[in-house]
Amino acid sequence: MTETLRALLVGDIVGKPGCRALFTCLPALSRELAADLVVANAENAADGFGLTPEIAQSLFAAGVQVITSGNHIWQKREILPALESDGRILRPENYPQGVPGTGHWTGTVKDVTILVLNLEGRVNLSPLRCPFVTGRALVRQLRSKVKIVLVDFHADCPQEKEALAEYLDGEISVLVGTHTHVQTADERILPKGTGYITDLGMTGPIDSVIGMKKEIAVRRSVNQMPLRNEVAETPAEIMGVLVEMDTRTGKALKIERVRRRSAV
Q1: Which of 15, 149, 184, 244 could join 172 via S-S bond, C-beta 3.0 to 4.6 A?
Q2: Active-site residue flag, 104
Q3: Could you tell me the domains of the chain?
């Protein structure tokens, strides 16, 4: 009988509505899905831009085991000490050497050693170290020690996301995209056994433009003025995927989209 591990990967948490949805829905959702591991991207959890130590601890208390992030992780400077002291809070691995924190976490779940790796894309984002070279080098360095490898690729371009998944197919268990806040419908298992989806979507307000107030988003687009986005205060939902993996081979067996609407 195949031994499996089930991971719930949660899309970008946006502001207070996204946090409320996660706090109220995640415990029951995790039990319902029989998730062994919960990983959530929280780079937008603090008012839409950044993360604070207090929010991070509340996410852990709600059942998140590892927090990933992206380019907005630096916008709340109070998170910097936590990036250094708490290995469960990740920033992308391919930032330059010497910046605070780490881009990967290893731990044991169900007696299985797991690697969670956070990378950031370069198309339409900062010219960081190559996520392809950085990602493969770390995976190969740790592969003898881990059975399951989960990658959050925080990137803007679908082509870059698909290309990295193909590049690492068979070497990792799953690659999920984050950053665009729009859940895609292309979840699949690649030929060599890696699960994939271009974007998890967001955990945030439904009646919005990628989690932000619609009227501001429209004015920004029509007037081309640099108006600051503000998080929409509407009911929210959790978006993500549930991935089931073979603990012996590390290959994905099943990947399915998850959406759960909150009443608050």
Answers
A1: 149
A2: no
A3: 4-205+235-261 (3.60.21.10)
